[in-house]
Design a protein that fits this description.
Elements lengths: L1 E2 L10 H13 L9 H19 L8 E4 L2 H13 L7 E5 L4 H12 L3 E5 L9 H7 L4 E5 L13 H7 L6 E5 L11 H4 L3 E5 L10 E5 L25 H12 L3 H20 L5 E3 L12 E6 L4 H10 L2 E2 L15 H7 L2 H5 L1 E5 L6 H14 L2
Parallel strand pairs: 1-11, 3-4, 3-5, 5-6, 6-7
Antiparallel strand pairs: 2-8, 7-8, 9-10, 10-12
Helix pairs in contact: 1-8, 2-8, 3-4, 9-13
The chain binds pyridoxal-5'-phosphate (PLP).
The site of pyridoxal-5'-phosphate has 15 residues, from helix 3.
Length: 372
């Protein structure tokens, strides 16, 4: 089996599974309990929070654990929307993950006015469009750091620079950026940032949201007042320990180097074939992460290719797993190219440090059979 759908989820590392099992077997206390077993759980929670905070240049009190990227995004948008009820305008992009887009749609129903920034053919928004969209009643901007289907990097630092002297806050969905781009929240300038554990070989169902000191947030979940009172519910200590373990095993520079090699191998091997293809989105190093390569296989329906690859033991995807089940042409590719055929003939191939050059060669050999 060759797993090349790492933007959908990643394989948990053996050490992550061990850390989780160990926590579940030996640390049964509730981290809010004050006796020994509780204190033991609290210690794991605190240590995990500290190492995850360091991983983005934040402090521990700026991290709220959640059930993953979807909750982090819902929480961030809900918080920012209701921080100042006199401001009813939101700016986002057309290529956001559904956990952002569907949330702003809900906010629209509640009276907010939303500007959806377009992207160009390279899959990137324009800073001029952001400037033009800003209004006196703009409350916040939410733009993803890295797109989950084409891997393009959005100009978050530049947006933050634009907002420096304005009372407009900035959220970024960094789910596909974390673990491949070095993130320093101070340099990036975002007020809130969402991360998910299962994209970096941690467990599914865990993540965090960074909340810059001083930003007032609104709970989505009310209850016992865990996580500084803004995210109630007993913390998932085992998963959080697994998440922190995954990050402790991450060697960013080595990972980047390996994944760039995987991407280069894919592109050079493809270029030697008869296959008629084109890469979707920017290939500029500063504009795209190497983990995701989206390819248009001209004239071959993605659904057909997906099945052939699956039967050959290779897992990739058409569009994103999050909207899976349906094989509708990718909304993101449609907004980039306004070309339904192209959108329905494109596949997303996404790497992790666990993939090998041999696997990429096998993929191309298999494509040579079915993509011509
Ligand atoms: C860009 C992006 N944001 C948010 C999410 C949702 O994260 P989770 O699956 O942890 O809810 C995903 C998952 O695919 C994603 O790719």
């Amino acid at each position: 089996m060759i797993y090349l759908d790492n933007a959908a989820t990643t394989i948990p590392l053996p050490d992550v599974i061990s850390a989780m099992t160990d926590t579940m077997m030996n640390v049964y206390g509730n981290p809010s309990s004050t006796y020994q077993a509780g204190r033991q759980a609290k210690k794991i929670l605190d240590e995990s929070r500290t190492s995850l905070a360091i991983s983005i240049g934040a402090t521990s009190d700026e991290l709220i654990f959640t059930s993953g990227g979807t909750e982090s995004n819902n929480f961030a948008l809900h918080s920012l929307a209701y921080r100042d009820v006199t401001k009813k305008h939101i700016i986002t992009s057309i290529i956001e993950h559904p956990s952002v887009l569907n949330t702003v749609e809900e906010l629209e129903k509640k009276g907010f006015d939303v500007t959806y920034l377009p992207v160009d053919k390279s899959g990137v928004i324009s800073i001029q469009d952001v400037k033009n969209a800003i209004r006196p009643d703009t409350s916040f901007i939410s733009v993803m750091y890295v797109n989950n289907e084409v891997g393009t990097v959005q100009p978050i630092e530049q947006i933050a620079e634009l907002l420096k002297d304005k009372d407009i806050l900035l959220h970024t969905d960094a789910v596909q950026a974390y673990g491949i781009l070095p993130i320093d929240v101070k340099k990036l300038g975002a007020d809130m940032l969402s991360v998910s554990s299962h994209k970096v070989h941690g467990p599914r169902g865990t993540g965090f949201v960074f909340v810059k000191k001083g930003v007032r947030v609104q709970p989505l979940l009310h209850g016992g007042g865990q996580e500084q009172g803004v995210r109630s519910g007993t913390e998932n200590v085992a998963s959080i320990a697994g998440f922190a373990k995954a990050i402790s095993q991450l060697h960013l520079t080595d990972k980047q180097k390996h994944i760039v090699q995987l991407q280069e191998t894919l592109l050079s091997e493809l270029s030697k074939t008869e296959i008629d293809y084109e890469v979707n989105g920017s290939m500029e190093e500063t504009r795209k992460v190497p983990t995701i390569v989206n390819v248009w296989f001209k004239g071959i329906p993605a659904s057909k290719l997906l099945i052939q690859l699956d039967l050959s033991g290779i897992m990739v995807s058409a569009g994103s797993a999050c909207s899976a089940g349906s094989l509708k042409p990718s909304r993101i590719l449609l907004s980039m190219f306004q070309d339904e055929k192209r959108a329905s003939e494109s596949l997303r191939i996404s790497f992790s440090e666990m993939n090998t050059l041999e696997e990429i060669k096998t993929l191309v050999e298999t494509l040579k059979k079915y993509a011509v």
